[in-house]
Design brief:
Blueprint lengths: L2 H26 L5 E9 L8 E9 L2 E7 L10 E12 L1 E6 L12 H4 L2 H17 L2 E6 L6 H10 L7 E4 L18 H7 L12 H13 L4 E5 L18 H13 L3 E6 L2 H10 L3 E4 L5 H10 L2 E3 L5 H11 L3 H23 L21 H7 L4 H7 L2 H6 L17 E4 L15 E4 L2 E5 L7
Helix pairs in contact: 6-7, 7-8, 8-9, 10-11
Bound molecules: zinc ion.
Length: about 450
Amino acid sequence: MPLSRFVFLALVLCFMTSVVAAQQAEKEKPAPHVVYVKAGHLFDATSDVLRENVVITVEDERIKSVAAAGEVKIPAGAEVIDLSKAWVLPGLIDCHVHLEARADKLDPIEDVRWTPFKGGFAGVVNAKTTLMAGFTSVRDVGSSPFFAVDLRDSINEGFIVGPRVVASGPPLSITGGHGDMNSFAPAVSNSMYPAEKDFAIVDGPEEVRHAVREQIKYRVDVIKLMATGGVMSQGDQPGAEQLTYEEMKMAVDEAHRANRKVAAHAHGTQGIKDAVRAGVDSIEHGSLIDDEGIQMMKERGTYLVADIYNDDYILGMAQQFGLPEANIEKERKLGKLQRENFARAVKGGVKIAFGTDAGVYPHGDNAKQFHYMVKYGLTPAQAIKAATVNAADLIDRKDIVGTIEAGKYADIIAVTANPLERIEVLEHVAFVMKGGKVYKDELTVEKK
Ligand SMILES: [Zn+2]
């Protein structure tokens, strides 16, 4: 047989085998798992109003369709989740959490006692608690290197139960800044942050460049900067600018080049403006923002992520935890101003995304912040959108989460009263589905 014919026959044989294999694979592919969710009242986050009597068809992990009940023929024997007496919403998103942190261990000295393992154990528990509270996505904006990345992956693998995690590495902070171990003897500080493991303490644009690239190398989704001082750190002032404009500009350029967003912790007036000017995607806290800062954020579309609930918890527990008096005083002064300035930012038209700093108060209580967001100027619909469609935009996932629409992940929650009339009902989420899988159901279980 001439070689060319042999090659031809071999190719034909190869082709036929692969066709048969493909047909077999098609046969063996399981039929999609279809579930019909009957939603009595639906807030899908694409508008500010409720839709009545809707059927959400879920196919495997995704939403296949959302339609009026009359338009959907549910086949006999199909799997149905009956939420016809409930208010159904997209899974909530908290853009500012610390899943390795425990609110019952707020004392800064705890940092010295803990090995990374303790944070890891806490993270497993906190992730589950957060999901059960109706938060199907979170952005973790600061933890030990690279806890949030590993947690994200373990959840995605199905090994641990938790929300979808958008992971940052340890925040970038200046020496002596909000992210550093201050007020300890050098021997203690240096053993906490040995130079070769120091991913987070940076001075000067070139060190910033290296740190951002290094964090991207270790697969973070987002870069977190400490633009100003903070409340729970020692020896610094929340209002003081820490990273310079040039340092932040470098971080933003490097992160955006790699398609990563940048979140800037910023309490102080000047630090907020320099961070916005440098091009960060969100200002976290934003406590001392002024009118000029509000205008700048509005013009550039920078999100404000203001943690305006946790003050109540921190001040309520301060004595019990033995927090240093200096920290308590900072919290007291700043908390009040932060709420007032949040209201001004809302009035000024700044884009708002929901973020709570969970970890400084107990994980799972995230929804307690809705009450304050409404009290300080948002309508209930706007507050829910801040925690769904807006948050999804900020975390760069608006094509997959944040609304109840065909094509998105079936991240669906339900409550037993109308959240547009009583926003606090979101503190008691009764049904949680993430990616088509039900994790919590206090509504239909009795009927089964
Ligand atoms: Zn934080």
